[in-house]
Amino acid sequence: MKKIFGNFSSSIIILILLLSACSSNPEQVVVTQIVNTPINQGAAEENAFDSTPEPIDTSQPENLINLDEGPITIYHIGDLTSRFAPYNAPAIRGLEDWAQVINNEDGILGHELVLDYSENGGDVKETISAFEKIVENDNNPLMVVVYQTEHAEAILPIARKNEIPVINLGIMPVQPEFQTEDFLFNFYVPYDEQLSFFLEFLVDNWAEINPVTLDTGIRLAYFAWEDFFGQSALTAGNRELLESLGIQLVAEEYYLPSSVENISNAVVGAWYAGANVIYTNTYMHGPALILNNLNRLVLRDFFVVGGPSPTLDITSYSYLEYNSYLEGFYAPSPYPWYSDENNIAIHLLKDNLENSDRTIADNSQKRILAQGVLELLVFTIEEALLESEGGKINGNSIYAILENLEGYQVMDSLFEIDFTDGNRTLNVMQMRQVRDFLGFELLE
C-alpha cells in the first residue's frame, strides 16, 4: 500500500538528488551538515572587486524541529469514555491505525510518527488542562488534534498565544467569526450551509422525490434540539432562502436532546400541518427518534426525511428499532463512503479498516475524516520540512502550509480543502441517500 498525496513539490526530487550525490555507498545516504563561516569584511572592503558573498547567519530559533533529530509528534485530545464516545472513538482509533500505515511506509521523510493521546472524558476543562500540559512539557508542539468543536474553541486562546494550529474534527454548527491569522482549522461544513444545500436539492429534484401523488409544493417541518446546535441551521438567511425557493415552513419543533424524548405528538402535528418534508438538525439518536415515530404511526411514506452529514454513520443505527428505518434518508456530505467503489482513496481506507481488527462500530464517517486529516497533516509536515532551511520547523511552519491550501484534494479523492482568505471550514458537498444497511449512495 502506498500513500497518496496531492501535488508534490519539486523540492522532493532535488533533495533526493542531493542526498544521492553525497553518498559513496548506494545503499546508504549520508547527510552532511555544512556550516558557513563568516567572511572577513575588512578584507572585502579593501578590494572593491571582491565577489565574496555576504555573511550567512546560521543561527536557528531554539524551538524548532530538526530534520536530523528523532520522531515527530502529533498530539491529540479525545474522548473514549463519555456518552459521545461511540461517535468520537472510531476517529481516535482510525488515527492510530493510519499512523501505523504511515510508519510502515517510512514515516515522515524517514522519521517515526508518534501520536501522543490525552483522554478528556468529554470534559472541556480536562481538554484545557491536557493542552496546558502539552505546552508546558514540549517547547515546540507542531499541532494538536481535537474531536469536538467546543473543546477546540476552549483551547484556542492558548493556541493563539503559543502559535499552535488546532485541528478540529468536531461538527461545526455555524461558520465561526475568525480573527486574522486564526490557528483553528475545521473539517466539517457548517450546518446552516448543509440545510441550504438540502433545500436547493429538494427544489431541483422535487418531481422525482415527491413522496405523494398530489403536488402541494414543498412543505417543510423542521425538527431540532432546543440548544445552540439544534437551532444553528434554520438561520435568518435560510428563512429567506425558504421564501425565495417557494418552500413553506409549516412546523418547527424543538425538544430536549434526549434519546427517550416523546415527540410523537410533534410528528403527528407535522402531518396535520400538511408537511411532506422533515429535516432534523440532530445526529446520533436524533434522526432515529423521528424515524421510529414515523414508522410506528405508519406515516413514513408521507415524508421526505433528511438531516446533516453526521447522520451517515454507524451510530445512527444504534437507536433505531429496525435498521431498515434509515433507508431513504437524505443527507449532504463532504466525504466519500466505504461503498464508493470508484474512489481510490476509499479502497485504501476500506482495506485498512478490514485489516485493523476493528468491529463494525468503526464503520464511521469520522474514521474516514480522521484518516484523511492525518494524511493531510503528514503532507503539511513534509512540505514544511522541505521548504525550511536546515529542516527546522515549528507550529507557524505548519500554519503557513495549511492557510495556503486552495482546492487541495486530500488523498486525491477524499475531500477538498480551501483555507485561503481566512476560510476555516469545508464547503464542498454532495447529496447521499441511504439505500440499505451502511449503503450511503452518492446521488449524481
How many helical elements?
Answer: 12
Q: List SSEs in N-to-C order.
A: HHEEHEHEHEEHEHEHEHEEHHEHEEEE
- Radius of gyration (CA) equals 26 Å
Strand ordering within the main sheet: 3-2-4-5-6
- Poorly predicted tracts of residues: 1-63
DSSP strand (E) fraction?
15-25%
For the biggest sheet, the summary is: 5 strands, parallel
Distance between the termini: 30 Å
Task: Give the fraction of residues assigned to helices.
Answer: 25-40%
The helix-and-strand class reads: alpha/beta
Number of strands: 16
Summarize model confidence as the mean pLDDT. 85
* Overall form: elongated
Could you walk me through the main structural features you see in this protein, from its secondary elements to its overall organization?
- The chain has 444 residues and is of the alpha/beta class.
- 36% of the residues lie in helices and 16% in strands.
- The protein has helices at residues 11-21, 41-46, 85-104, 124-137, 149-162, 191-209, 236-245, 264-272, 285-296, 344-355, 365-387, 395-402, and strands at residues 65-66, 72-78, 113-119, 144-146, 166-168, 184-186, 219-225, 248-255, 277-281, 304-306, 330-333, 392-393, 406-409, 416-418, 430-436, 439-442.
- The strands form five sheets. The chain has a five-stranded parallel β-sheet, sandwiched between helices. The protein has a four-stranded parallel β-sheet with strand order 8-7-9-10, sandwiched between helices. Strands 11-15-16 form a three-stranded antiparallel β-sheet.
- Residues 1-63 have low confidence and may be disordered.
